[in-house]
Recover the amino acids of this structure.
């Protein structure tokens, strides 16, 4: 697929992420929990052991600084996988990804934290894993906790937190890293309405000429409001890229759904 | 944004390409690993804190557990009629504590990647930090047992000799060996989650094949092959020699131990590093 450009030029066209002919293929087991027993059972029954997933196919695109880029697509479109490649979590199988800045990720499927530890310990662990120094975390700790609104429970184990509270803490840590490129992948849907409003406001505040924000979400209304550009992916390929209204309209037509609470909310 | 800032952004901070020959750039990998040393210490500290080892009672438990275990095994030796006095009990406790340093590291290390799945799925960092942190936790749990060993040493009137200065070197070798096994076990456990169920049996078998309940001198000639095929043998034999018997370790044991450590570390890290890119889609 060739590289496509946005129809309107944003404030700066410096590339934050440059993706060239990216392909990502991985092998996964057919069992939800891979075990030696299941493997031997399948072998004895001469059944297939694994399946090959082509998560991203020959993708070429640039994500520029100075704008909020939304990524939409059905489940299994390759959105989260693409975010993990940009974050360096999954290496590509083919092609090349160049990242021109410090990345902070707030990805789906949990928040990268250990439930047995306290909120405080998790803030330090999350920050250190992301490459921050202890001094940097010390400096930002109070503002992280204040933004999360979890001052009263920060020393309680994370297993006592609701999923929304965990999301709040995760967002606060990720946003505090002062990243050049901030990736949010369906990670805020469990937060309460007040925190969603607060997070969206923070995203707007973070938007600047020298920062790129990439938001993966199914909340089309919110994306329409905060994004400068939207990329629609399907089956590992980019289908369309451009003005939010235009891309969302095309995506809705593809899904045969109109604007509804189901497609608008759940950021 | 200023022009100078634009210039800074033109050089990519990270370039992700398919791995060459299955391995990442080792220089970059180990540099990134070194940068995560604070994370490793915090991970270990938080884990011990969560298990209440930060409290006086928790630390007491850490000392009591191996002591009770050593007492039970000593009782067993008396019952089955194995002769031996103070030195036998000293040998049993010293080697048992070291044995548990290794097995604790392997058992916890095996689960390190799968239990850190959220971190693996959401953060880019060298995955090797996870088994390293578990080995560090095993070491932190081992340190208080050294105090117990010192107490036993004094109570039994065992000799203090210059050969005890070998202890840090032997401990370092043991840690390298324990880490290597933890790395291999962690990789296997990603692909076969039930593999960890075998570990208690393997650990128990290894205990009986190692010079813990007996000394290497007591071993039947026909079983001498155990000294070579059991990787723990040279470590435990050397540890008992310097800590209990007050003699220098055998050079052959040290060379064998070093050989096992280097071989397993090379094998383990090769398997881990060539596979770790898959971990995020396997857990």
């Amino acid at each position: 697929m060739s590289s496509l450009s946005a129809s309107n030029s944003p404030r700066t066209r410096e590339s934050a992420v440059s993706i060239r002919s990216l392909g990502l293929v991985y092998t996964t087991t057919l069992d939800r929990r891979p075990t030696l027993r299941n493997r031997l059972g399948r072998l004895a029954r001469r059944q297939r052991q694994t399946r090959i997933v082509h998560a991203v196919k020959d993708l070429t695109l640039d994500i520029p600084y100075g704008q909020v880029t939304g990524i939409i697509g059905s489940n299994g479109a390759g959105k989260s996988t693409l975010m993990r490649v940009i974050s360096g979590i999954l290496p590509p199988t083919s092609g090349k990804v160049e990242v021109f800045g410090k990345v902070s990720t707030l990805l789906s499927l949990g928040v990268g934290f250990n439930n047995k530890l306290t909120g405080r310990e998790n803030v330090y662990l999350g920050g250190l894993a992301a490459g921050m120094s202890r001094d940097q975390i010390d400096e930002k700790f109070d503002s992280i906790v204040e933004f999360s609104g979890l001052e009263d429970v920060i020393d309680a184990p994370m297993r006592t937190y609701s999923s929304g509270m965990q999301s709040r803490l995760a967002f606060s840590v990720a946003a505090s890293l002062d990243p050049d490129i901030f990736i949010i992948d369906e990670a805020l849907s469990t937060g309460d309405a007040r925190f969603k409003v607060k997070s969206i406001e923070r995203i707007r505040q973070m938007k600047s000429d020298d920062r790129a924000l990439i938001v993966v979400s199914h909340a089309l209304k919110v994306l329409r409001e905060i994004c400068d550009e939207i990329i629609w992916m399907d089956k590992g390929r980019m289908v369309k890229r451009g003005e939010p209204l235009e891309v969302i309209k095309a995506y809705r037509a593809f899904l045969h759904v109109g604007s509804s609470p189901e497609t608008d909310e759940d950021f | 944004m200023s022009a100078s800032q634009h210039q800074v952004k033109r050089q990519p901070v990270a370039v992700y390409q398919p791995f060459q020959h299955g391995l990442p750039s080792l220089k970059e990998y180990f540099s990134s690993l070194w940068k995560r040393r604070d994370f490793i210490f915090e991970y270990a500290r938080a884990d011990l804190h969560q298990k209440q080892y930060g409290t006086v009672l928790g630390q007491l438990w850490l000392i009591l557990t191996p002591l009770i275990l050593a007492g039970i095994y000593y009782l067993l030796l008396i019952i089955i009629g194995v002769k031996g006095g103070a030195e036998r009990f000293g040998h049993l406790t010293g080697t048992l504590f070291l044995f548990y340093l290794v097995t604790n590291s392997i058992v916890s290390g095996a689960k390190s990647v799968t239990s850190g799945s959220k971190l693996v799925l959401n953060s880019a960092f060298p995955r090797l930090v996870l088994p390293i942190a578990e080995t560090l936790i095993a070491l932190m749990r081992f340190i208080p047992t050294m105090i117990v060993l010192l107490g036993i040493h004094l109570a039994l009137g065992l000799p203090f000799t210059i050969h005890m200065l070998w202890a840090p070197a032997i401990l370092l070798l043991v840690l390298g060996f324990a880490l290597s096994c933890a790395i291999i076990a962690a990789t296997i456990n990603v692909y076969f989650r039930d593999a960890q169920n075998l570990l208690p049996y393997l650990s128990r078998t290894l205990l009986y094949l190692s010079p813990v309940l007996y000394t290497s001198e007591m071993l039947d000639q026909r079983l001498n092959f155990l000294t070579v095929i059991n990787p723990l043998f040279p470590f435990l034999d050397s540890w008992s020699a310097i800590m209990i018997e007050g003699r220098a370790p055998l050079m052959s044991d040290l060379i064998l131990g070093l050989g096992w450590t280097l071989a397993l570390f090379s094998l383990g890290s090769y398997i881990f590093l060539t596979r770790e890119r898959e971990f995020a889609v396997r857990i």
In short: The CA atoms of residues 8 and 153 of chain B lie 62 Å apart.
